[in-house]
Amino acid sequence: MKQFSYRYVALLPLLFALFYWGLSPIAEFINHYQTQLTLYFLEWGLKEGQLQGIDIMVNPHYKIIITKACNGMIPILVLFAAILAYPVEWTHKVWWMFAGYLVITGMNIVRLLMVAHFVKKQPDFPLYHDLFGNLLLMLTGLLLFYLFLRGTRVYVR
Q1: Where along the chain do its domains lie?
Q2: DSSP letter assigned to residue 146
Q3: Strands (E), 68-155
Q4: Phi and psi at residue 154, in whole multiples of 5°?
């Protein structure tokens, strides 16, 4: 358990430096792609004209801006660090990272649609985005990691 903790604590900032923070061209490319993918799928769930560029027009006086922090990469990288830190075979890790990416990306889109819908009815953005939306993503990540652990055989080193 100690080795998992040490690996996780080391992998988390490394993954963020490589794939999220603007420290590398890889991070800029991946975040641009992830944001564009998020916007593409958001358009399916919003009314025509409601998505304008990176803005979700909730009403004529209120919009939600989809920034890099809204593209789902943060919970994806937290899950990836946990999966990579755990001592199991690589094929299992790769499969769960792929599945986790798809599930968290999908849940992030659901989260953003939920926030836009509820903010339109009751304008309490912090409640819906910061509390309910982020809680949804955290619980999704924890459930995915739990399912990952359930299907593993630990390799003791």
Answers
A1: 2-150
A2: H
A3: none
A4: -75, 135
